[in-house]
Structures are given as C-alpha cells and as structure tokens.
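Backbone geometry tokens:
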Amino acid sequence: MNSPAFPFPRSQATTTDAVLIEALHACARRSVPALRRIYDLTAPRLLGELTQMLGDRQAAEAALADCYVHIWQQAATFNPERCRPGTWLLSIARHHAIDSLRQQQPATPWEEVDAALRLTDTALSEEFPLQEGRILRLAYLSGRSPMEIARALDWPLRRVQEAIRRSLLAMLEVPAT
C-alpha cells in the first residue's frame, strides 16, 4: 500500500524518466540523436553537480565530456528496473569526479617535500640518522601518509613506519625497545 506522501507506485516513471529511458535504449543501439537528447536533458544538472564536486568549472566541463563518452559506451548496461535514469547518470558523473580528483593529486610533489626538508633542518637535530630524519620530516611537515612516503621512496610500508617511530622516540629521548 502506498503512503499518502508517495501516491503513485515507485516503478511508475515520470515523463522525463520515460524520455531518458527511451533515449538510453536508443543510445545503446548507437543513435547519435538519442545521445544528443540525453545531453540536452541532463547536461546542466550534471555540470552543476560536477562543478560542485570538483570546485572548478573547467575541470567539470572536461569531466562532463568524459561522462557522455562513458554513457555512449555503457548505455546498453542501463537497466530501468534497477534505478532511475537520473540516478544512473549522476552515479557516472560522481565516479568521473572522483577519478578527476584522484588524477589532480601529484604523485610526488618533490618541490614541496624539498622545501619542507629545508625548513626542518634547523628544527631537528643532526643526531637523527639521515634517512630517518628525512622520513619524519616527510611525514609531519609535508603531510604525507606513511603509505605515500613508502611509495615515493620505494620502501616497504613497515620500514617507513618503523623509521617514523624510531625518530619520534629519539626526539622524546625515550629508549627504543
């Protein structure tokens, strides 16, 4: 039984949903006008969502173009019984935004790391072994996680974690066990 707040069955598609479902099925059959129809109906909303997620209009426009390439390639996988077309399209946009944000992060910002190392040379005594002091600086001044440091130095994660631990203990003058 439907509640008064939702007076029609959930499976009943709205007019826009019906148009999008038809267009997605036609797009799966490689209809360019269908892809254009999908774009016309959804681009402003998807661009708004992408702009909000990415915080940059140009990046959002690039991600939007990638979204429609993905829609073109994957339209045959859309199943209206599993979700509404708008939900499916928004999930594609969300995934592209996440991928775009991941690509924006530099793999190794060595300029930032070197600047942080220079700044801390006076803060940390020369008593630390060179590599352990460098790892401690990387961890606490450049804001890198032990995993990021391990990848950048091509070291095992455990080795980086132990170097950080030993350096911190040395700073506290607590004997390492």
Remarks:
- Residues 110-172 form a domain with the Arc Repressor Mutant, subunit A fold (CATH 1.10.10).
